[in-house]
Amino acid sequence: MVNALGRHILAEVHGCDFDLLNDVEKVEEIMVNAALEAGAEIREVVFHKFSPQGVSGVVVISESHLAIHTWPELGYAAVDVFTCGERVNPWDACNYLAKGFRAKSVDARETRRGTMYSTPQKEAVNL
Amino acid sequence: MVNALGRHILAEVHGCDFDLLNDVEKVEEIMVNAALEAGAEIREVVFHKFSPQGVSGVVVISESHLAIHTWPELGYAAVDVFTCGERVNPWDACNYLAKGFRAKSVDARETRRGTMYSTPQKEAVNL
């Protein structure tokens, strides 16, 4: 596996209810809880409701960020989960939010960010 | 070209000065101006300075978002420019910020988001 500074999941979330994707408070709650589920430390939370429909929001975490943009009329959300370091697994957040949004399908792929740089190696202890 | 709801550029920005990548006000200024350069409508701006170094921040725009995470000690920043619709070109923002950060190199690639859905076709007029 290539050493990298960060892991970035781009998730295409399909088949969700209009009302859920259009409820800014629920969308924020699911995204914040997804970050917490992965053990991330939350720094900033900003969400915005669009007219006539749609929600955009970002959860800035110490380990990078989660972002979402929803198209309620299509039952679709574009979601990003970007984490740095070894402590937090972005797939924990991704799996949580897929359930939270009751998605019929999720097409998610992971991209490595900062691959020119090595992550610090853990010290070999008691080997 | 595949129809898509959004265009998402993931940019690996290398060879920047430590002091610039560690200056939260300058990083915010460059990212906000990059959004404006592309003609985006800014909705929310949140930036955070980490100790001992590093900046994370997001500019939420009507057309989606811009995000950045900097590693000043490596001269590196991971940048996202995600835009929806035909009006805003994410490459305008990407090119602007590459200059703003005086990057020695930028490895940027565009990913289409929401490719299951067609963007509205413009009407053919006077053909």
Automatic annotation (TrEMBL), chains A, B:
Residues the UniProt record annotates as site (Cleavage (non-hydrolytic)): 63-64
Natural source organism: Thermincola ferriacetica
Enzyme class per UniProt: lyase
Pathway of action: Amine and polyamine biosynthesis; S-adenosylmethioninamine biosynthesis; S-adenosylmethioninamine from S-adenosyl-L-methionine: step 1/1
Identification of the protein by name: S-adenosylmethionine decarboxylase proenzyme
GO MF term list: adenosylmethionine decarboxylase activity
Membrane-spanning residues: none
Family in the record: Belongs to the prokaryotic AdoMetDC family. Type 1 subfamily.
Assembly information from the UniProt record: Heterotetramer of two alpha and two beta chains arranged as a dimer of alpha/beta heterodimers.
Keywords on record: Autocatalytic cleavage, Decarboxylase, Lyase, Polyamine biosynthesis, Pyruvate, S-adenosyl-L-methionine, Schiff base, Spermidine biosynthesis, Zymogen
